[in-house]
Amino acid sequence: MIKAIICDFDGLIIDTELALYEAFCDLLEVDSSELPINEYANYIGTDSTELYNFITMKTNGKMTKEEVIERSHILHKEKLSFPIARGGVEAYLKEAKSKGMMIGLASSSNRAWVTYYLKKLNLFDYFDVIQTRDDVDKVKPDPALYRNVINYLGIDPSEAIAFEDSGNGSKAAIAAGLKCVIIPNKITENLDFENFHMRLNSMEEKELSKVIEIIEALYV
Predict the structure, then answer these.
(1) Are the C-beta atoms of 173 and 156 separated by less than 8 Å?
(2) pTM (predicted TM-score)
(3) DSSP-derived secondary structure letter, 127
């Protein structure tokens, strides 16, 4: 029986990933032909070190990594001045609460970032536990974040569904023993996902109750 849902944050609850990609394009003064999304997407859903190294390389020595981080962060926040949750997100959270389910969040971003936008979106109070990069030694695709959430909720991994948008996120969820529903965004739809239990284009595609019904039927 599914007792909890656990959500990723960036790209799943709010499409911060498209905004970041656009910020990098602005920073580099390039378009998508010069910064191919299918190449860029491989750096999504894990520690940002490799991503910033990749973008710094793209500057051809015109910027240091520190400059890339600082300037892209400013551009990124500007693009998220009026954040909007992805379609169906709040409906899923409301439905989970109405069913008495627990709700967790597992993000490779830092806690300040996640908390700030959850509060801006008026979604913060839905979550029973939030685990971020501040709480673990290794982020996704390592399963530590999901294992922490499961431990806090006091349930078996098989009793939770993870909702993810990236390959690294789905790897982490599966490694932690969770069922995983992937809902790619405009950036991560370019990735090849190795393992998952269901794929949706949006949470608006199926109600949470139907998703749970299908997932549970797989293991009768």
Answers:
(1) no
(2) 0.92
(3) -
